[in-house]
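Note to self: the last two entries modelled the partners one at a time, which told us nothing about the interface. This time every component goes in together.
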Amino acid sequence: MTSIPRTLSWQGGLPGRLRMIDQTKLPAEFLEIDCETVETVWEAIRSLRVRGAPAIGVSAAYGTIVGLQGREYADRAAFDARLAEVTDFLATSRPTAVNLFWALDRMKAVAASQPQLEPAAMLERLLDKARAIDVEDQEMCSAMGRHGASLLPKSGGVLTHCNAGGLATAGDGTALSVIFAAVAAGHDLRVFADETRPLLQGARLTAWECRQRNIAVTVICDSMAALVMREGKVQAVITGADRIAANGDAANKVGTYSVAVLADAHGIPFYVAAPSSTFDLSLPSGDGIPIEERDAAEITHGFGRQTVPEGADVWNPAFDVTPARLIKAIVTERGVISPVTEENVRAMLR
Ligand code: MRU
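The predicted structure of the combined assembly is written out below.
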């Protein structure tokens, strides 16, 4: 297997920088960028240079360090004020993936638990925490692969939407980690990658990852999902998630809900793979999940070409919510939640 480059990593110690693959350039160009200011980290998250719920969380943890380092602090109060400023700022980058807020809350909790520490020592502790969040995400990806692999068919097609692979995490991915683990265990699988309008994460990123790993992949337009299901080419569907409510309703890239409805109509199991950092038990159902709305230009001028006439209204929600009743199981790093009920979700995450 080709060695897979890391989606993001911390370079150096203190001071250091956040290195990431610029995913907006893939697959035509492989480019890594270094973020040395909190503004560049924010911009990278906002413009999807780094994207995917877990990767956004890990980036925010390292982004906190980027925003804190390289300054003189008169005392802990000054340090804490800057920490609040940096984390509040990063929290405005994207609204839907709860992993962003989960990671920022963990960073703030470390600082709050050691109020006596001097700024320099506190910054060291926070870098340790960011590194721990990074490593934990890698481990959660591997565990989801282990728990979920046996859900997939021994041979056949598996459809996925958007990109829930290594590019979306610090490790091997969520949904794709399950596929990678199944293939490693001998399953003979072909991935059907929805291209994923409007930003083509499936065509550009999922297909790229599958080719890096020598896994058979067929890219289809989103509108072809019903057809491949009716033709018997797909035996399972698995996607990631950006936020899962207490009852199991799962927000993921817009179009996921359609795929779940289609899978239900064709009697095909629909699975979600997500780490515990993607659950938001404060929300009783998916109705409360904030859905990001993005610039209309992503639809009207996708990849530099005008495809919509001036004056037409455009709606560009980046995510939709799949109701729990359409999800056969949720694969987490702790095990598989099935059937997807609030009781089972809470029991798994306890
Ligand atoms: O807008 P994106 O590309 O960040 O959306 C990503 C997704 O919807 C992924 O499926 C989700 O974050 C899970 S990633 C493991």
